Amino acid sequence: MSEISNISKTFFAYLSRPHLYPELARKIYKNIFNRKAAFKGKDDAALWCAKNAISQEKTIAEILGFKNYTKIEELYPEILAEAKSNEKNCPVKMGGAGALDLIFYINEYLKAENAVETGVAYGWSSLAALLSIEKRNGTLYSSDMPYLGKENDQYVGCVVPENLTFNWQLFRFADRESLPKIFKIQDSIDFVHYDSDKSYDGRMWAYPLLFKHLRKGGVLMSDDIGDNAAFMDFCLQNNYESIVVEFDEKYAGFIFKK
Ligand SMILES: C[S@@+](CC[C@H](N)C(=O)[O-])C[C@H]1O[C@@H](n2cnc3c(N)ncnc32)[C@H](O)[C@@H]1O
């Protein structure tokens, strides 16, 4: 499909969703005045990640202290098998799974009751967080807008089984609208997973806000931190110690709030 027809498809998808008009206005502004921001500092970030990275397995065993831990696929084989089948049968292809064991075990370590995530798509990160949070009858607050032009709205979160949805509140707006709504309901968060707007500016807007609402000792985790320098800059500018985790040839990072 040509770029022009892609753009018009996305534009009309926005027009039919008035709750996303604020994001449409921001996208138009960004495409006119700030086109190159998405990959700002990518080379420096990739070097920084490569220098500091440790494996997901080592992070869970040595930093979180779950020696000889069991992968969630073995802990919950039926749920994971059904989730995989739901992904396979989903007619729309969306962004895939991240470091699911790490997400689960950080929530276990924190004994998380309240978590926030940005970016749901199939819902793999939601599933990993909910499997832990549900044990304490806590709540996962998720922010997600659909992939515009893909008409995937009805499939968002399709890998999350129905029984876990009792502990889940999904806000179907852009983060800039969702997050203020979420923080009005719950102001003190144990765990945050960031996996939505991957642009430098999007991250640099969201990270400080998310961090502010973390409780002391809580964790902010972000996916794809090698894509641009936002996570690295956020850590270095604020003197935050971070843990960089390599998995599937990409990087996630997390910070404990001291
Ligand atoms: C990589 S996918 C998330 C994958 C998910 N965490 C998982 O583990 O399955 C990114 C999602 O974020 C959504 N998204 C992108 N920009 C957003 C924004 N500004 N606000 C809210 N959601 C956004 C995308 O439409 C998509 O659904």
Automatic annotation (TrEMBL):
Methyltransferase recorded as keyword: yes
| Top-rank lineage group of the source organism | Bacteria
Family matches, as InterPro entries: SAM-dependent_MTases_sf (IPR029063)
An example GO BP is: methylation
Q: What is this protein called?
A: Methyltransferase domain-containing protein
User: What transmembrane ranges does the database entry give?
Assistant: none
Organism lineage reads as: Bacteria, Pseudomonadati, Bacteroidota, Flavobacteriia, Flavobacteriales
Keyword set for this entry?
Methyltransferase, Transferase
Which species does this protein come from?
Answer: Halpernia frigidisoli
**Alphabetized GO MF terms:** methyltransferase activity
One Pfam entry name: Methyltransf_24
